[in-house]
Amino acid sequence: MSKHQRPHNLYFHLAAVLAASLGLGALTQAVLAVGEFVPGFLITSGLIFVVGCVLYAAWHKAGAGKVLAWMMFLAFFVRLGYGVLLAWGLPRYGYEEPPQQAGYVFDDAFRRDRNAWVLSRSDKPLTRAFSGDFEADQYGGLLALSGFVNRYLSPDIHRPILVVIIAAGAMALSVAFLLAGLKRKINGKTTLWAGWILALYPEGILLGASQMREPFLILFFTMMFWAAMRWLEEKTDWVASITFGVSALSLMLFSFRVGPAMIGAVLLWVWVIKSNELRKPWLKTAVWVLIVVALAAGVWFMRDWVREVLWWDTLLTIERSGRVQFHLGSLPTWLHFPFILTYGLLQPVLPAAIAAPAPWIWQSLAIFRALGWYLLFPLMAYATIRVWNLSPSFKKRSLIVMVLIVWVWVVVASARAGGDQWDNPRYRTVFLPWMAVVAAWGLAYARETKDRWIKRVFYIEIIFLTFFTHWYISRYYPYFPRLELWAMVGLILVLSLGVVVAGWLSDRRRDRQRIGVDHG
């Protein structure tokens, strides 16, 4: 591309961003009709344009590829569109509850946004968001950001969609950082599919279409990951170090409980990879001892909080579900928590989403979220098994660390939120970038090696879904016959074992036939 073409393309692209911003701003204001049209149109369009320019700059720095452009565009557009749909549809087709009548899916977002509006209308500095005066946000970061938006962009009337625009932009920006990081060390289909999963994973779409902190946590996490990838290539990189530091600080402002876990995960990932280059065994051992001591100290200092949280969330799960109470009654006490933990791993439960009667806007949302998890979960499980087949390399070390950290976090999220169908998936999703990488690698490996076991993993899930969908349908519509729960679980296990054995025998038969052909 010549020097004369670059400014021409820049002006053309910025004009396209401006035109799209004006169109989306007009459509958003027309649908939501918050306040007078002209101020709302200008404010909304202006914010979309600023976000669009940031995304354009990130896209250009990440390589300016067409596929990345589509990923980022869809990541932003789908979330903004879904946010507008929910804000418009929940008051009309949702339940008669204050958050839904105000257009919010999450009660946390509803309360935080209301507090942010109150803060913005007061004469108090926005730093009061971190004082603990507002119980709706115990960390303060998102409350301060929302207060800033209300005070300086929309002082005339509360426009909740403005925070959604920023959240959608944060998710789209995280796609650029993830792909820019991955292409430095992990190329091909894994990078491509990881980007698509991060851009279009349903729970990520819902969170990016809401006034929640998770899109920002995901963005800061991908920025740290990008910086870590640059560290692995260059000994001195001030850009990467500054990016990591700013991202880590931002994480702590948005969540000082989740932040250390995400920062520690990236640093541990870097250490495992770089430690292989150390020539002094004693130094490597000393660092590992420090890591173990630090982890033990963290668990020790947070033990009371963790114990209270686990007990409280488990209690809430039991109290909210009469069905859970019923089945726990048939189990010994020591199996109660493992039962709740397993129940949490299955949330949001797809059979329940399909069978449970609900307004169309809620049922479609429930199916959408659950379908995403039930597509991602088997890919992650398959990758967890197959990653050990790789020969020793950077890819194997990096993927194994990702796999272990992701599963530890998934289990912690399930324990932290019990069997809750909202908090559990939300906590789990903060590590979506690495979950996407793990799942994408599993899919790429299966296609490259033509491994039949990935299909068998899905066959087992289909068996589970078939039986439990019928079970939930018979629960809500009693005229359908039903199996007793534990008898059905036993039948699912037997059929799943049958899939495993049949697959193993089929592979052995093919191996014998191939050996026979080779000898012939």
Question: How is the topology of this model organized?
Answer:
Layout: H1 5-32, H2 37-61, H3 66-93, H4 98-101, H5 107-121, H6 141-152, H7 161-182, H8 189-200, H9 202-208, H10 214-233, H11 238-254, H12 258-274, H13 281-301, H14 303-320, H15 322-328, H16 336-345, H17 350-355, H18 360-386, H19 394-417, H20 423-428, H21 432-449, H22 453-476, H23 485-519
Helix pairs in contact: 1-2, 2-7, 3-7, 3-8, 3-9, 5-6, 7-8, 7-9, 7-10, 8-21, 10-11, 10-12, 11-12, 12-19, 16-19, 18-21, 18-22, 19-21, 22-23
Strand proportion: under 5%
Biggest sheet statistics: none
Q: Tell me the number of helical segments per DSSP (H or I, 4 or more residues long).
A: 23
Judging from the principal axes of the Cα atoms, what is the shape? Answer: globular
Structural class of the secondary structure composition? mainly alpha
Helix and strand string, N-terminal first?
HHHHHHHHHHHHHHHHHHHHHHH
